[in-house]
Design goal:
Layout lengths: L9 H7 L2 H30 L5 H34 L9 E2 L4 H30 L1 H5 L4 H21 L8 E2 L10 H35 L4 H40 L6 H11 L2 H32 L4 H12 L1
Antiparallel strand pairs: 1-2
Helix pairs in contact: 1-9, 2-3, 2-10, 3-4, 3-6, 3-10, 4-6, 4-7, 4-8, 7-8, 8-9, 8-10, 10-11
């Protein structure tokens, strides 16, 4: 029997039409819609509030693009699986998909996933550059972010092409969310790379925060330098919050899925696919980006307004005035 006409087993039919799968689709689609709405709000705030350096802002825009590309294609894949679970519930020889049919959607999904991770790493590099050569960075405008974004886009588009090198696309999958079986070894390497990049981003952002705090204190009598350090510190803290939340979502996904893939021969088919459905935590990492941007930008704005109101409402000592200015910059 050729792959294109291979029928689903009884176990696979139960999986494809289960209430658990349908609930997962509804929940993930809701998260995707929430991501779209929060992205609109985050873009509006990024344009209005001048908190980030132009370079960092370019990377944040790039990250939001990849987050939404991922959510759009994932919702399309999920939606198709949801519809097929009803319309083909009594047609086991039609409900399965070939990897050839899923090639484009699977490639876009991998590109979106890679882009989310790669942009996060690029933002960490951007913060690193701002820390080690602040004067030069301040005069570069949006160039560092633009250059890093181009690298991210090229790398993200290349990722699925590299993973699928030599793949015959002749196997069967429940839906286009699953990777081709023949690409399994390269998919495993890809997941390991994503996990390592997220961990490195967390560590580097923590070190950058520590360095900026120290440099800010050492430049306390140089207003311009101190403002640059404070700006870098505020931006890095926000990026670190984003990196931390995405670390939870992306590392959980890559670790669980990698573990499942390595032990797939020993796991029943229905259990394997059910766990993979729920182990895909990337939508949670995706929605956290615009949500945290909105939260942190509003928090910084509120802090500045509160300090300004305090300054204008009372007469302060010199020490209190300096403390207020420090809070204003943060």
């Amino acid at each position: 029997m050729s792959p294109a006409t291979k029928c689903a087993t009884a176990e696979q039919m139960v999986l494809q039409t289960s209430a658990l799968m349908r609930v997962n689709v509804i929940m993930m689609s809701t998260l995707a819609l929430l991501t779209f709405f929060l992205t609109y709000k985050a873009l509006h705030l990024l344009q209005r509030r001048q908190i980030f350096h132009p370079s960092t802002k370019i990377l944040l825009y790039t990250s939001l693009v990849f987050v939404n590309v991922h959510e759009v294609i994932f919702m399309i894949i999920q939606g198709a699986a949801f519809v097929r679970s009803f319309t083909l519930s009594d047609k086991p020889c039609e409900i399965m998909r070939t990897t050839e049919e899923c090639r484009f959607q699977n490639h876009v999904l991998i590109s979106g996933l890679a882009g989310i991770n790669f942009t996060q790493f690029a933002m960490t590099i951007d913060r690193f550059i701002a820390t080690i050569i602040p004067q030069k960075y301040a005069t570069c405008g949006s160039f560092p972010g633009l250059f890093l974004s181009i690298i991210v886009v090229i790398s993200s588009i290349s990722a699925p092409l590299i993973i699928a090198i030599g793949d015959r696309y002749d196997d069967i999958v429940p839906n286009c969310f699953f990777f081709p079986q023949n690409s399994a070894p390269r998919v495993n390497i890809f997941l390991v790379i994503l996990s390592v990049m997220v961990i490195i981003s967390i560590v580097l952002n923590f070190l950058i925060i520590c360095v900026n705090k120290k440099l800010e204190k050492s430049s306390r009598f140089h207003v311009q330098q101190r403002y640059q350090k404070r700006e870098a510190l505020v931006s890095t803290r926000i990026i670190s919050y984003i990196a931390g939340s995405q670390f939870l979502g992306l590392s959980l996904y890559s670790t669980l899925v990698l573990t499942l893939r390595l032990h797939k021969p020993f796991i029943p088919v229905s259990m394997y696919h059910n766990i993979v459905w729920w182990a895909y935590t990337v939508p949670f990492a995706a929605v956290s980006l615009p949500a945290l941007l909105i939260c942190r930008i509003n928090q910084v704005g509120s802090n500045r307004k509160r300090v300004i109101n305090r300054i204008t409402a009372k007469v302060e000592t010199q020490e209190e005035h300096m403390k207020s200015l420090k809070q204003l910059w943060g």
